[in-house]
Amino acid sequence: MREEAVRQIVLDTETTGLEPAQGHRIIEIGCVELIDRRLTGNNFHVYLQPDREIDQAAIEVHGITNEFLADKPRFQDVAEAMVDYLRGAEVIIHNAPFDVGFIDAELARLPDTSRMASFCEITDTLVMARQMRPGQRNSLDALCSRYDIENAHRTKHGALLDAEILADVYLAMTGGQKALSLDAAEDDANDGEETGIRRLRADREALPVVRASADERAEHEARLDSIAKACGGTPLWRESTV
User: What's the pLDDT at 180?
Assistant: First the structure.
């Protein structure tokens, strides 16, 4: 029996300013869908009329103006569709408290004051990146550089564009392979030519096993100790060997 498909949504927002507590509003929501780690093209993208002026500093970041948003819907017009789209999914966000804080503030203005966490699971890639590489820069641009993801076209922030880039970053952070098909019939038909899979002969010689030296094992343990101290917990490598 095939296991149930895993549905993930990568989400980003653009806003009129930095603090929802100061009355700042969402002006763009961009989401891309992953099913079993594959981009489906089933995106959710809206621009929103915020009913307030956009801070000049914010315009310099994303380039969205009040004039552009004058004829766009308001959050209450798209809230139901957005919640239905996100419901039951794992929602992946970079620096999740910022976007979740704004979405929760928008939801609080509606009769149904539910919060994001009540209808979806939230994963913060900034927290993941800090745990994986403590002490390093973990902005979206820095992660693109680290994982060789093209982002030269990102001259301005944009919710949908940043969600698309973050999807590539997330897949690279968690093992890559966003489009590889492992369907047996397809692999047989292509014989590995299109998929890049090279089949090994059953009668091949055994692969050599090179074991770590005592010095290398000691250095590895020292590195795990430094990671544990930096993140305040047990590194995943040690958890997997317990």
Answer: 41
pTM score, whole prediction: 0.71
Instruction: Reply yes or no on whether 157 is catalytic.
Output: yes
| DSSP conformational letter for 97 | H
Whether residues 38 and 154 fall in one domain: yes
Domain of residue 235: give its range.
216-242
Query: Do residues 31 and 11 make contact, with C-beta atoms less than 8 angstroms apart?
Result: yes
Nearest to 163 by CA among 32, 25, 7: 32
Q: Are residues 140 and 31 in the same domain?
A: yes
Q: How far apart are CA 126 and CA 94, in angstroms?
A: 5
Give the CA distances from residue 117 to residues 12, 86, 103, 155, in Å, rounded to whole numbers and listed in that order: 16, 10, 11, 32
Whether residues 37 and 139 share a domain: the answer is yes
Residue 188 lies in a domain: no
Same domain, 125 and 229: no
Considering the chain, what percentage of its residues have pLDDT values greater than 70? 80
Backbone Cα Rg of the chain: 22
Per-residue pLDDT for 242 more than 80? no
Instruction: Point out the catalytic residue in the list 24, 94, 157, 220.
Output: 157
Structural contact between residues 10 and 163, judged by C-beta atoms closer than 8 angstroms: yes
190 within a domain of the structure (yes/no): no
CA distance 100 to 93: 9
20: CATH: 3.30.420.10
Helix 125-132 vs helix 159-173: crossing angle, to nearest 10: 40
